[in-house]
Write a structure and sequence with these properties.
Elements lengths: L2 H17 L13 E5 L3 E4 L4 E10 L5 E8 L7 E5 L3 E5 L4 E10 L9 E9 L4 E11 L5 E4 L7 E4 L4 E10 L5 E10 L3 H7 L9 E6 L11 E10 L2 E10 L4 E10 L2 E10 L4 E4 L6 E6 L1 H4 L3 H7 L4 E6 L5 H8 L5 H6 L8 E4 L13 H19 L3 E5 L18 H21 L4 E4 L1 H14 L24 H16 L14 H16 L35 E4 L3 E5 L4 E9 L7 E11 L4 E11 L5 E4 L12 E10 L5 E11 L2 E5 L3 E5 L4 E10 L8 E12 L2 E13 L6 E4 L5 E3 L5 E9 L5 E4 L1 E3 L4 E5 L4 E4 L4 E10 L5 E11 L2 E11 L5 E4 L5 E4 L4 E10 L5 E8 L5 E5 L3 E4 L4 E10 L6 E10 L4 E10 L5 E5 L6 E5 L5 E9 L5 E9 L7 E5 L3 E4 L4 E10 L9 E9 L6 E10 L4 E9 L1 E2 L4 E10 L5 E8 ...
Parallel strand pairs: 2-9, 11-29, 18-19, 20-21, 20-22, 22-23, 23-24, 39-47, 49-56, 58-65, 67-73, 75-83, 86-90
Antiparallel strand pairs: 1-3, 3-7, 4-6, 4-8, 5-7, 8-9, 10-12, 12-27, 13-26, 13-28, 14-15, 15-16, 16-17, 17-18, 25-27, 28-29, 30-31, 31-35, 32-34, 32-36, 33-35, 36-37, 38-40, 40-45, 41-44, 42-46, 43-45, 46-47, 48-50, 50-54, 51-53, 51-55, 52-54, 55-56, 57-59, 59-63, 60-62, 60-64, 61-63, 64-65, ...
């Protein structure tokens, strides 16, 4: 029986047993109850609780209810495990329900209390129970703490310049042993501390002023005050007019207002809570942003520019991290590198935004560490470039992070973790010495979230402002979200409120207002733990934010606040130790309250706690007073302004009133500066006052004065000890210097005498000295003494003499001065020095002018005004010979003093002027002076030559070759006035003689005046290799009488460049092997000179070898060629190649090809010969056999074709072609001329009876352009049939059934099976019915398979066993080719038998 029949019978038996299954009992009751939990391990802190979701699946066939109990017998009694439902009812079959198991852990639990409990779920009717175990663990509790009770509480008082050590209790309140680290940081905002310190009662605080309002902690609560005056809330002070802010309220005002925990400075928004709001006119010029899609969405940089930033640029890429940005900045030519280091832009701020999840990761995460290191490296580089860093704190995702559900289950937790991460980034960056700020964008998102939730709205549902901050993915910002980020960045950088911004962002005004107010509230109200660039530098800005915990950063300059021991190792749970904190106050500390946050951090739990210690620095009032104006002039009869310098050497800011009193002396004193408000420590002010001296006072008198100060600080007045000083009375000094009333003129060489006078208007007789400052153009001396004594009210006189320096002229100022007791009187006297006329005319140094008849010569002369007066001169020339004319470039000239000009004298001589010397007189003159130059005119004989080329222009290119000379023709002409011998030469300008040689036809020739003669120079190449651009030579014609008389022509010799072109024409280009093809050929000289060209053929002698002498561009006559083809040539297209070479340049050759055709030929027996390896073949009807077929190409051409089988009985046998060359199953062939190919032709019988066939192989092919075929001799094939099996079925025990009985039994079995299926179908419910239908389909398929009878295997046939077959010849177990599906054939790699794989 076949395997398919066996499977069919087995399927029927299974159906029979399945119909009886409802009568059997379930062996495993728990299989009907399937349990699972959402977690198998619960970890809780002591005092916390959690839930376990239990899923119960009813795997039975009826609706069930289940009892739920827990077994905690092996668990500490500190655990309380309670099912929320004791009974889970009405669970449908195959359905499941969830119930909750509440897990609570009591306080005091330790990790050793960990264990597990079992959940029992029972079906009470049949008492089936399933059990699932859940493990529970106690998370270790880490709780460091500091107790300031040992130092008397958190508030201590100290003086400036003092230091104290305080003892503080360090406590480990956790549940495990821990190592605690201590740190201290400056805390600038004490408003919240004062609120807690005074318990909201307002302490001794009060509100004084006109108006309404509640002063924060001054009235014990939170509120808003509106008034004019001074308001004090808690221990904070606010002065100003407008709206102050108390508690956590909001307000706008002008001035400084502090109420409760909020401070507002400037004009703009004053805010409360724990924030500070400043308004300023800060303008941000350049901002660079490093971020990713959070920054790129909606072009956040463009939104900043819309709000007033002059230039905002962004470098972003999707998913980019801070470590990635650092890598880019550190990569040469990367856009991040070039943008940050752009030398033309000074970045005010560089905004850094990390990937949206990493900042909140655990600090042990590699991603977090990489981003932190990237942030530090970026901040270092930004600082190097002169900018400051701003961390853009991103926001939690709208519904948390589905990829990190434990870490980020919702928005608020994710936001808290992101805030902590950015603060830790900040601390590490500032610890490296960088200025870093945080823009709390994520906290602004949280502000809006809290407002939405407080209004009773589900923030995660659409239709509220928080929901609309996000894009559709709930992660990236919408335009509203990006606008909120821009508002926060704007306030962070400038300190200006974004409320009322006139930007052009396309949002509705109401939405923009809400976003602007949220940003302002976040920056100014709710982030007092941050500091911003715009805050006061005295307390916060200089500290940036709090620097890295554990490093003691952020302490104000001059202060020292340090732990003596900052680490307590292995403290037992519940233990405590004492730490010492050393505090040193700088001597210049201002009286105020200074907060220091003390940290205790757990190294085991990575958590920290802090408490605030406040140091009150007491006020001190001292002044340093000094009078530094003693050297000022205090003159009788005059009033003098002076000043006293006062320095606040105390440590408090004080308002001072001043008083100045005269004790004794002829003076009256009055203060100009009566008070100085708000004098800060180390401030230096000048107190202005005026002293009036009595007119009768003398320089022997003085005045004594007393200066006093009264100060007010914190509503308390105090006085400063009086300061006494003395003013000395000075002498009255007054005098005037007087010069002559009339103008003075002097001619050089004729000095003049004059007087200078001085009037003494002072009170004393004085001996005055006259100082004279004389310019170099004048010569001045005293006739009288240089000093004169003058009594008060009288006049003194000095007599002086002045002369002009020779060669000078013009008006010059002479300065006189008299000085006495710091006073000087000046007088400036102008003296006119009259001018003198004088000129010179200078010509050739040798005094000669040389020329020849019929020539023109120009000579330059220099005419100079050497006097001190401007000149007008006229030119003249005397002494020219007859036949000569003269021309002046200037007939009349105007010369300023010292001016020189060039005058050209041109003399033209006619041919009739005889040779000789002529004395000329050349001059320029006026009525007073004459400037003359005497020169000799020398007329000489004329020597001149001329060379004219007959056909060439200057620098024309002349090709020169090696085979013949190239001649250059020219005319020689004697253009002189006498007979002369002319010389011809060739000049090499660029190495031409290295490659070329020349020959002059007539090197020397004597010619009379005006006579000419023809001549030539021939050139030939003697060495190849000259530059193709050519080399220059000159043909020079020179006079032997005067070597300077010459003429030339220049030519460029270029080397011969070969070139040739072949044109091949064919008369007959097709022939059979042994035939002839023929035609003609023409050669053209394409070179630049005459050449002999040689023609040959390549590879075949066609009788064309010859030489042809051709000029450039010349072509030969037609040259015949004829070629005889080889007798054994293969058919097809062939190439005949002609070659031309240059005899002048043997390395040059050119070719041209002629394509000809060899026609295909074959014998009388046809093209393809087909031969069987056997003439007859016998195959069994149940198998097959094969025969080898050999085909041979008898033609001289390649043939391509197909093999086919034809003849009598070809339908009885299946056949297959296998090409033995590559063992490929194919009937295709490609044969080159004379080649053969063998095929294995396999046969398989298609009949089961004995048959005969006569078969032939036909080869159909293409040769040339014709399709033909050849047929082999026939192959006789005998098919031998098998014996026939008997009818019917033989059964065991010698029972035999006839064919009809067998069919009846089979039909009865099938009817019985279908009856069983019908009964089962009616009994099952809907689910079982569907299942039964699937099985019935399977049964039908199996039944149909039973009907298929496997056929017997033929010769070399086998079937698949999995993906393997067994070779019928060698029994090797073989893998089949990948993807093969039966039936197919392949060769056994062991025995090379061709195997047929059947189904």
């Amino acid at each position: 029986m076949s395997s398919r029949s066996i499977r069919a019978v087995a399927f029927v038996l299974i159906l029979l047993f399945a119909s009886l299954s409802p009568l059997a009992m379930n062996a495993q009751a728990h299989q009907s109850i399937l349990l699972s939990t959402d977690t198998s391990h619960v970890v809780l802190l002591p005092g916390s609780s959690g839930n376990v979701t239990l899923n119960i699946e009813n795997n039975a066939t009826a609706i069930e209810s289940f009892n739920v109990t827990v077994d905690t017998s092996g668990l500490s009694n500190l655990w309380n495990i309670t099912p929320s439902e004791e009974v889970v009812e009405n669970v449908f079959p195959t359905w499941s329900k969830n119930t909750t198991i509440v897990v609570r852990l009591a306080e005091g639990a330790v990790p050793s209390d960990s264990g597990s409990f079992d959940i029992h779920v029972t079906e009470p009717d049949q008492n089936f129970t399933s059990v699932i175990t859940v493990y529970v663990s106690v998370a270790p509790s880490y709780m460091p703490a500091l107790n300031l009770a040992t130092m008397g509480g958190p508030l201590v008082s100290m003086n400036s310049g003092s230091n104290t050590s305080y003892s503080i209790e360090v406590q480990n309140l956790g549940s495990v042993e821990d190592t605690l680290l201590l740190d201290v940081e400056f805390e600038p905002d004490l408003a919240a501390w004062w609120a807690n310190y005074t318990n909201g009662t307002g302490g001794n605080n009060s509100n004084n002023g006109t108006g309404n309002g509640t002063g924060g902690n001054g009235s014990g609560g939170n509120g808003t005050g509106n008034g004019t005056g001074n308001g004090t809330g808690g221990n904070g002070t606010g002065n100003g007019t407008g709206n102050g802010t108390g508690g956590n309220g909001n307000g706008n005002g002008t001035g400084n207002g502090t109420g409760g925990n909020g401070t507002g400075n400037g004009t703009g928004n004053g805010t409360g809570g724990n924030g500070t709001g400043n308004s300023s006119n800060i303008t941000i010029d350049n901002v660079l942003m490093f971020g990713n899609s959070y920054t790129n969405y909606n072009n956040l940089n463009s939104l900043l520019e819309s709000m007033g930033v002059v230039n905002a640029d962004a470098v972003t890429s999707g998913g980019q991290t801070l470590s990635g940005h650092w890598s880019n900045v550190n990569t040469t030519a990367n856009i991040a590198n070039t943008t940050l280091r752009n030398p033309s832009i000074d970045w005010d701020y560089v905004v850094l935004q990390d990937q949206s999840q990493i900042p909140g990761f655990y600090r042990s995460s590699t991603d977090w560490t990489n981003s932190k290191n990237g942030a530090v490296n970026l901040a270092n580089e930004i600082t190097t470039e002169g900018g400051e860093s701003i961390l853009l704190m991103t926001w939690g995702r709208r519904n948390g992070d589905i990829n990190n559900p434990t870490l980020y289950p919702n928005f608020t937790i994710m936001q808290d973790r992101l805030e902590s991460g950015y603060i830790d980034y900040h601390d590490n960056m500032t610890a490296a010495g960088n200025t870093v700020w945080i823009a709390p964008v994520g906290l602004a998102f949280e502000h809006i979230y809290n407002n939405v939730v407080a209004g009773g709205v589900n923030a995660s549902l659409s239709g509220n402002l928080f929901f609309d901050l996000y894009d559709a993915d709930g992660s990236h910002p919408s335009l509203s979200g990006s606008y909120l980020a821009a508002c926060v960045l704007y306030s962070t950088m400038t300190g200006n409120s974004p409320v009322g911004s006139n930007d052009t962002v396309s949002l509705s005004p109401s939405v923009k207002l809400q976003l602007q107010q949220a940003a302002a509230a976040t920056v100014f109200n709710e982030t007092s733990h941050f500091t911003y660039p715009w805050q006061s530098t005295t307390t916060t800005a200089s500290m940036s934010m709090m620097s890295s915990r554990g490093l003691g950063g952020g302490i104000p300059s001059g202060w020292s606040v340090q732990w003596v021991d900052d680490q307590f190792t292995n403290m037992p749970a519940g233990s405590s130790s004492t730490a010492n904190l050393q505090v040193s106050v700088p001597s210049n500390a201002a009286p105020d309250y200074y907060g220091f946050r003390l940290y205790s951090a757990s190294t085991g739990g990575n958590v920290s706690t802090s408490t605030l210690m406040v140091v009150h620095v007491n006020a001190e009032h001292n002044l340093s007073i000094v009078f530094l104006e003693q050297n000022s002039a205090f003159i009788p009869g005059f009033s003098t302004n002076s000043k006293i310098q006062v320095t606040n050497t105390g440590n408090a800011r004080v308002d001072y009133n001043w008083d100045l009193a005269m004790i004794e002396g002829p003076c009256v004193a009055s203060l100009v500066t009566a008070s100085t408000p708000g004098m800060s420590p180390d401030d230096v002010v000048d107190i202005q006052f005026q002293i009036s001296v009595h007119e009768e006072a003398t320089k022997t008198d003085d005045c004594d004065l007393r200066f006093e100060a009264t100060g007010t600080s914190s509503s308390q007045q105090h006085s400063i000890a009086p300061f006494f000083f003395t003013i000395d009375i000075d002498e009255s000094v007054a005098f005037e210097l007087v010069m002559p009333m009339t103008a003075l003129e002097v001619t050089p060489g004729s000095p003049i005498t004059y007087e200078m006078r001085i009037i003494n208007n002072g009170s004393e007789t004085v001996n005055f000295y006259l100082d004279v400052t004389t310019p170099s153009e004048l010569d001045t001396s005293f006739v009288s003494s240089s000093s004169v004594e003058v009594s008060p009210g009288n006049v003194g006189v000095w007599t002086l003499s002045t002369d002009g320096v020779s060669g000078e002229y013009g008006i010059y100022s002479q300065l006189f001065s008299v000085s006495y007791l710091g006073q000087t009187s000046f007088a400036s006297l102008e003296i006119d020095v009259l001018g003198v006329e004088q000129a010179t005319l200078n010509g050739p140094l040798d005094g000669r002018i040389q020329t020849r008849p019929s020539e023109s010569v120009t000579t330059s002369f220099t005419l100079s005004n050497t006097g001190t007066s401007a000149l007008q001169l006229y030119g003249s020339l005397l002494g020219l010979p007859a036949g000569a004319d003269a021309t002046l470039s200037h007939d009349e000239v105007m010369l300023a003093v010292g001016q020189s000009i060039e005058v050209n004298l041109t003399i033209d001589t006619q041919s009739s002027v005889p040779a000789g010397s002529y004395q000329l007189s050349f001059a320029f003159f006026n009525s007073n002076i004459t400037a003359e130059s005497a020169v000799m005119l020398q007329v000489q004989e004329r020597v001149s030559v001329k060379i004219n080329s007959m056909s060439l222009s200057q620098n024309e290119q002349i090709p020169v070759g090696p085979n013949s000379s190239t001649a250059v023709m020219f005319d020689m002409l004697n253009t002189g006035s006498a007979q002369d011998t002319l010389l011809v030469s060739v000049v090499d300008y660029g190495g031409a003689f290295d490659w070329f040689e020349f020959e002059i036809s007539t090197p020397t020739l004597s010619l009379a005046s005006g006579q000419s003669s023809s001549n030539s120079v021939s050139f030939r190449e003697h060495t190849a290799g000259a530059p193709t651009s050519g080399v220059s030579v000159g043909i020079v014609l020179q006079s032997s009488t005067d070597g300077e008389a010459m003429d030339h022509i220049n030519i460029t010799l270029i080397p011969f460049t070969p070139g040739a072109e072949l044109i091949v024409l064919s008369d007959d280009d097709s022939a059979e092997p042994g035939g002839t093809i023929h035609g003609t050929i023409v050669v053209t000289n394409n070179g630049n000179a005459m050449d002999v060209l040689q023609i040959t053929t390549v590879g075949m002698d066609c009788g064309v070898a010859s030489s042809h002498e051709l000029l450039p561009g010349q072509s030969s006559s037609s040259i015949p060629w004829s070629c005889v083809l080889s007798d054994d040539a293969d058919a097809g297209l062939k190439e005949l190649k002609f070659r031309v070479t240059s005899s002048s340049r043997p390395s040059f050759s050119a070719t041209s090809s002629e394509i000809y055709t060899i026609e295909p030929i074959w014998g009388m027996s046809g093209v393809i010969e087909i031969v069987f390896s056997e003439s007859e073949l016998s195959i069994p009807s149940s198998g097959g056999s094969s025969v080898m077929v050999t085909i041979t190409n008898l033609a001289n051409a390649q043939v391509i074709g197909l093999l086919s089988l034809e003849g009598v009985g070809d339908g009885l046998i299946a056949h297959e072609w296998v090409r033995l060359l590559d063992n490929v199953s194919t009937n295709e062939f490609t044969l080159t001329a004379g080649s053969s190919m063998q095929y294995n032709l396999g046969f398989n019988s298609l009949v089961s009876t004995s048959e005969q066939a006569s078969l032939s192989v036909r080869a159909t092919y293409v040769i040339g352009e014709a399709t033909q075929s050849d047929v082999s001799s026939p192959l006789d094939v005998d098919v031998v049939g098998p014996e026939m099996p008997p009818n019917g079925v033989a059964l065991p025990f010698d029972v035999q059934l006839s064919q009809s009985d067998t069919l009846n039994a089979m039909f009865g079995g099938w009817i019985f099976s279908f009856l069983i299926l019908a009964v089962l179908y009616l009994r099952r419910d809907k689910k079982d019915i569907l299942h039964a239908e699937d099985e019935a389909d399977t049964e039908t398929e199996s039944d149909e398979a039973v009907e298929e009878q496997e056929s017997a295997l033929g010769y070399n046939e086998c079937r698949m066993d999995g993906d393997k077959v067994m070779c019928p010849s060698c029994d090797a177990r073989l893998g089949v080719p990948r993807g093969s599906e039966p039936p197919f054939r392949f060769s056994c790699p062991q025995c090379s038998t061709l195997i047929r794989v059947v189904e």
